[in-house]
Amino acid sequence: MTQTAAAPGTLPHPPPPPRTARVHRAWFVAAVTFVTIIGAAGFASLPGLLIEPLHEEFGWSHGTIGVAVSVNMALYGITAPFAAALMDRFGIRRVVAVALTVIAGGAVATVRMTEPWQLVLCWGLLVGLGSGSMALAFAATVTGRWFTARRGLVTGILTAAGASGQLVFLPLLAWLVDRHGWRPATVTVAVAALAVVPFVWLLLRDHPADVGLAPYGGTYAPRPAPAPGAARRALKVLVGAARTGPFWLLAGTFAICGASTNGLVRTHFVPAAHDHGMPVTAAAGLLAVIGVFDVVGTIASGWFTDRYESRRLLAVYYALRGVSLLFLPILLAPSVRPPLVFFIVFYGLDWVATVPPTIALCREHYGDDGAIVFGWVLASHQIGAAVVAFLGGLARDLTGSYDVVWYASGALCAMAALMAMVIRRRPGRSSLAGV
């Protein structure tokens, strides 16, 4: 086809601009990440449901079972910063696919266990390492690479995926444990994790440049070369961050966050409610309701993080959480009553609302290393969770009640609120992530 010559004295028509997709590819990557986190979330739902069945079948104490849960949570956190560095070195989808496979293998192996050390090995070690590679550092890495605008909102959505997975799995798992025992429930979450692997491998991409795009709201940049020495880089980032005050304040507040959520409520709420005569299925249903409102609260927190100062948001979240925990011991009863429902809704809105502003502060203070720094901060979150998962079970064995643990956690949350306000703003950087 020949092109018609332009008339004398006129300029030729410019070529039409290239067509662009109406929906940026980053949103599809975020969707795959969301589904992946949901697929792995069933493992976070199980510990609280397994304590009583394992205690009844094997005669293991609450403290003994709590050791395995503590190892799981500690490794979940310690692995996270190395996983973020491994994603820089080998790519997101390779690390996540291997992690899901390890999780499923460790969970299935628990079906044949007969001794406590086997629970520590399979559930504590294998599932802990695998889930650590699927930790929130995964969400931080995806948002850091694929989004320049709306980072806070997307972080909130991906953080809420864990709660959505809890919502999807918890009622089903509680029903399976109640009707068929804990083994079918364990196999169910293993199968769910494996089912996500093909989606990760086929649909997830490591970097916008892999498909010739710029990050959402940003400018195009070539894919950086793989960073060698993932472990060395993770440790180097830790050493550098540990020389700064904000790191220790963020790590301390997030340790309390983990202690008051995963370590306490997720692990011990069901057995604590059962101590007051509430059926396990009813207590598990309440945890699922926490998951419903956690989705709302975390997405809202991401929206707030794009607009308000992160440290003030953290102070408010921790203060409200601490107050709510102080009331919980008087709310537990054989049946579900309106005051307990109010606590569940309130606590759900605050469950992991702390994550978007914490990630934003890591990014604000540590720039390109923010995801790895957040991995180390997440390690403190899980160590806090691990300590309380063990101490909560030990307190139950020694006192016959969880009351002292609820009160202590409420006091710790008040301390976290004060620590958040001490975090200084970084000169020359805005605390409004993603704007």
From TrEMBL:
Protein's membrane topology: Multi-pass membrane protein
UniProt superkingdom: Bacteria
Key words, A-Z: Membrane, Transmembrane, Transmembrane helix
Main location: membrane
UniProt keyword annotation of NADP present: no
Chain ranges passing through the membrane: 26-51, 63-83, 95-111, 117-140, 152-176, 182-204, 247-265, 285-304, 316-334, 340-361, 373-392, 404-423
CDD domains noted in UniProt: MFS_YcxA_like
Protein name per Swiss-Prot or TrEMBL: MFS transporter
Subcellular location: Cell membrane
The Major facilitator superfamily (MFS) profile domain, residue ranges: 28-428
Keyword Oxidoreductase in record: no
InterPro entries: MFS (IPR011701), MFS_dom (IPR020846), MFS_trans_sf (IPR036259), Proton-linked_MCT (IPR050327)
Record-linked Pfam families: MFS_1
Organism, as annotated: Streptomyces yangpuensis
